[in-house]
Please model this.
Amino acid sequence: MITTILLILVGLVLAPLAGGLLAGIDRRLTAWFQSRQGPPIMQAFYDVAKLFGKQPMASNPWLVLCAWVYLVAAALSCVLFFLQGDLLLIFFVQAIGAVFLVMGAMSVPSPYSQVGAQRELIQVLTYEPLLILVFVSLYLATGSFQVSDILAHETPLLLQLPLMFIVLGYALTIKLRKSPFDFSTSHHGHQELVKGVLTEYSGPYLGIIEIAHWYETVLVLGVCALFWSTNVLMMTLLLAVTYMAEIIIDNTMARMTWRWMLKYVWCIGLGLSVVNLIWLYAKI
Amino acid sequence: MSTQIILLVLLPFAAGLACYLLRAAFLRSLVVLATAAILTAASVALLSAGPISYSPGPFLGLGWGLIVSVLDFALLGVILFYGFKHGNLLIKIFSVLQMLGLLILELFWVDHSAQVPAFHVDQLSAVMVLIISIVGSLICVFALPYMKEHEEHLHLEASRQPRFFLFLVLFLGAMNGLVMANNILWLYFFFESTTLCSFMLIGHDGTEIAVKNAVRALWMNSAGGLAFVLGMMFTYASVGSLDIQVILASGGAGAGLLVGMGLICLAGFTKAAQVPFQSWLLGAMVAPTPVSALLHSSTMVKAGVYVVLRMAPAYAGSFVSDGVALCGAFTFLACAALAIGQSNGKKILAYSTISNLGLIIACAGINTPAATAAAIFLIIFHAVSKALLFLCVGTIEQRIGSRDIEDMRGLYLRMPQTAWITITGILTMLLPPFGVLMAKWLAIESASGQLVVVTMMALASALTVVYWARWAGTLLAAPGGGRPAPEGLPALIRVPLLALVAGAVLLSVAAPQVYDAVVAPMLPAMPSPIEAFYLYPLFAVLGAGLLLALRAARRSRATAYSAPYMSGANIDMNPDGTWNGPMNQPVGAVAGNYYLPGLFGEERLTTFVNVAAAALIVLMIGGAL
Model:
């Protein structure tokens, strides 16, 4: 019982803190790559605190509703992950947030928000099958969709599922909105899309979206961590290398088009998945 | 219980005739409402009965077996007549071949002295009866005011409603008979009755396009009927019985049975409009909305999946089973992709129906207890949500004069009540903790052992999110600050809508109980996958979250609404996003959805999908030979 409560607290409180911290580190490292000083590590928290201080304004009550539902779904999926529940269920709960984020953006007659929403849907379309296949591969390797059972697996899964980890990397890059997949919204508001799907969320509501995004970051990294869960040191190393790779990709790639993403990621992702899954079937 | 069985089958036939003969609108409404109430009560009573077999006694000194045989030929004669009337060679060929096959079966093969219970009601049948009788009845009730308004639009001289309600109500009886039949020849009779009913209803408006689509539906379903007759012949030749219980128990028998099962599944595919037979169901939306709602949710297409699911034990573990899973998963994927390319609301619903039926059939093909549970869950939850959505589109169409989702942009301001009911309906199709998604989850988990099937399911599941989320968002797309106008829907429209939306949500809440009451008796060995102990916390947290969100949204009404971002060119900070365009002229903000015709357009995909699906079906049946 106490463990459960502790796990809920970890998922609810520590996860977004870690996500925010990671965002700060991300910006710092990116600045370092670009020979800039960069903001303080805690900048992400300062930003959100400032957003919450703003006067609440929205174009539409639906935006407010959708921002909150996004946060609740993201937090719930993160908590379910720390409670070691069923991966597919966790993912579908997370999808509630994704759907509501899009619905909110679509509720405003603003071209930037509308285009961003459509593109966000295509991002969902791109990463969702890949994530489901990653979960299926975890099931085939361990015999369960439950995080608890996957953690109990005795050998590092990365050795069995190397290609699936690359597939997961694609999904992670899309979910983190990193280049070359940053076209539903980007970290730079001066582009043709302005802030895309996030354009109309402002003030405290944008703050809510930011926090929800931290939860999601931690969730996807958590799934990455499952690939080397036998050893804490190796797990940390794996996550550090993965995130570093994300930052490098983000800094070296140009933004591409959604058509390219859909075709390229589905082809590569499905190809890698099928090959890796066939290995697993061969072993069973 | 025998009274209920007779009532459920014969009452709709009698009520249909009464609707046809009693020409007064008031009497017709009374008959439909009374039938709806009686069917609902009888179906609920049947659920608690447990498995029973029943054969009606002779009627006027004639055995019912003989009567059904005669009616079979009469039905085929009627279909042949329409084949001649519309000059369609395919219908003629298929109905004549069916007659030949039946003649051989009835005169030379079948041992008529064998005792075969005419009806057998188990949990699966009882569930189907419940869906048909309750959802179907609600649609019939909705049709009363709908058809009145429909005919006012058409300016008819003589009302054609008597004929319409004859077939609409009769359809329910045929469906009830179909899902309870135990003698495969009876099953075939009801199967063909639904073909005829749907033909009559699709062509109801009598326009050129309606007739054309009705004829197409008839020939495709006649092809299915032929497959059914051939399937019966193969099955009888190998098992030697017409008793479905005996056929199911003989599972693992030789190639003859498997070929027969493959053919009967093919018949189910045509009825469930699986690719490459999807075009008849797409064409069926020319009919008045209650017909589409009935065809798509509780009858007709459900007859197709019912047949496939009913026969599942007979082909378990065989190549046919894998073939069925592949065909179903492919339909799930192909139609989800095709739905993305559509902006016509009814067409999106049609593709989504076919897609979901594909998933149900895939579950039948996977043929494990968990997959069967998922299939039954999907049948239940899909029927309710889809009926609701069709009725919503019908209501919207009568008000705004369009079924295009682009025209539903910002519908919330014009039809607030219908808009939120529609959005709720969409969410119950799409998101946890609602039943459809929980069943999909179960389906994907049980498909994990089959690489191709699970890959197709993963892709289809993502495609599904796109077309539903896009539609729900479109309904909301309205400027802030506007006060929605009250709608004033007629009670007979509002009540079915509210009943269905409440049903969709409450059934999902009661999913563990539904499982215990309905699915568990069929699969005693399996622990319940829809456990209350995680479903209820999920409901509680998400429900509380939604309340919190609603409260925040309501409070935000007090603050002023800001104009959408228009790069600073807004005029007077209008919440509708009007901006200062060239020559200082005001320009309205216009938005449209992505439909990606280059990737998911019908022209682009249909041919390929049909060829691939036909190949899969050949694979399924050929593999059994």
Observations:
- Chain A touches chain B through 66 residues (CB under 8 Å).
- The two ends of chain A are 37 Å apart (CA to CA).
- Residues 2-33 of chain A form the longest helix (32 residues).
